[in-house]
Design a protein that fits this description.
419 residues; alpha/beta; nine-stranded mixed beta sheet; 29 strands; globular; carbohydrate metabolism; EC 2.7.7.27; Trimer_LpxA-like_sf
């Protein structure tokens, strides 16, 4: 679709991004950082997609709630997202869990994260609140969703994906009528309800909600006073609105932003090491499913100051080259070959190495003569000379975190144990 440039409703909205989750299925990648702060796509972080969608949609009030191991994420946000200007009626607030309501209360759930910051949200007086999960990869024009919310007279509008019915068992699933009014909202059902007229598909929640601000505040205050609540949007607030108000589903296919090169409505939860690896490697295709080169809908981020990437040596067996790969600034590929790989900022690959199907995070050094395939290497790791990964599953599993699909996650602590 063509992005909506009128931004009539977006200027009256505030985006509240929930970015406190650990993402434990990413294993050691989230030992030092929250899932929204994990690197993705060669130079961005996962959270940059939700934030860029808000900015590109015309929303100029943004708050980000953080909690789990937030330093890396907060540092990224302060460096990359501090360009909002109060004199232009813009704001960007980082909202760490800081016991603002009670001395013993961190954020107890997604709804509580918004409740604890009601006074900050109120100070900006937005008419609408767009609640966003900060840990998914997609491009979406929230103005389209806001317009549907207003036109339908909904109390809450839920962003949803159309997925094969039996693949929806891990989502919150909506049972809707022909007008997409939600009659039931079920968390992780064993037998998901189908879509009217398309029973083999189901509507799965994206974790995106649009509320009128006044209505949301009433819900949050009532929820905070309920001792039996888990203070979660999906478990508590949304089922309440479905039962007692009007909840409407918004289909992602109607607001997904696609360039001329994107055939599908792209959305990914990169919540496992395998899914994270696959989504990154997919970007190396000639025509990837996600177009990160789309200048009409840019993905904003913090870009480190770095020299251009460099490829050196041109001798047989020692040639710096890359095929179907993304290589960021500050990288030096010295007499080695890359294939279907992503190198984030400042990676050094020394001579006579072979790198294939690799996701290499910033400031990694790869020693001479290494042979690495199907790997994810965490930030700052020093790979010793001659290391071989991807040829012997048993050896790989004994040394590194090896997934069911044969991807090896490598951290510095794992390398240190090899010595």
């Amino acid at each position: 679709m063509t992005p909506n440039r009128s931004n009539r409703l977006a200027r009256d909205a505030m985006a509240f991004v929930l970015a406190g989750g650990r993402g434990s299925r990413l294993m050691e990648l989230t030992d030092r950082r929250a899932k929204p702060g994990v690197y993705f796509g060669g130079k961005t972080r996962i959270i940059d997609f939700a934030l860029s969608n808000a900015l590109n949609s015309g929303i100029r009030r943004i708050g980000v709630a953080t909690q789990y191991k937030a330093h890396s994420l907060i540092r990224h946000l302060t460096r990359g997202w501090s360009f909002m200007r109060a004199e232009r009626n813009e704001s960007f607030d980082i909202l760490p869990a800081s016991q603002r309501v009670s001395e013993d209360a961190w954020y107890r759930g997604t709804a509580d994260a918004v409740f604890q910051n009601i006074d900050i949200v109120e100070s900006y007086a937005p008419r609408y609140i767009v609640v966003l999960a900060g840990d998914h990869i997609y491009k979406m024009d929230y103005e389209v969703m806001l317009q549907q919310h207003v036109d339908s007279g909904a109390d809450v509008t839920l962003g949803c994906l159309e997925v094969p019915r039996m693949e929806a068992t891990g989502f919150g699933v909506m049972h809707v009528d022909e007008k997409d009014v939600i009659h039931t909202f079920i968390e992780k059902p064993a037998d998901p309800p189908g879509i009217p007229g398309n029973p083999d598909m189901a509507l799965a929640s994206m974790g995106i909600y649009v509320f009128n601000t006044d209505y949301l505040f009433e819900l949050l205050k009532a929820d905070a006073a309920n001792p039996s609540s888990s203070h979660d949007f999906g478990k508590d607030l949304i089922p309440y609105v479905v039962k007692n108000g009007k909840a409407v589903a918004h289909r992602f296919s109607t607001s997904c932003v696609r360039s001329e090169y994107e055939a599908e409505a792209y959305w990914r939860d990169v919540g496992t090491v395998d899914a994270y690896f696959e989504a990154n490697i997919d970007l190396t295709a000639v025509t990837p499913a996600l177009d990160i080169y789309d200048t009409e809908w840019p993905i904003w981020t913090y870009s480190e100051l770095a020299a251009p990437c460099k490829f050196v040596h041109d001798n047989e067996g020692r040639r710096g080259m890359a095929i179907s790969s993304l290589v960021s600034g500050g990288c030096i590929v010295s007499g080695s070959a890359l294939k279907r790989s992503l190198l984030f900022t400042g990676v050094r690959v020394h001579s006579y190495s072979s790198i294939e199907d690799a996701v290499i995070l910033p400031h990694v050094t790869i020693g001479a003569g290494s042979k690495l395939s199907r790997v994810v290497i965490d930030r700052g790791v020093s790979i010793p000379d001659g290391l071989v990964v991807g040829e012997d599953p048993e050896i790989d599993a004994a040394r590194f975190r090896r997934t069911e699909k044969g991807i090896c996650l490598i951290t510095q602590e794992m390398i240190d144990k090899l010595v």
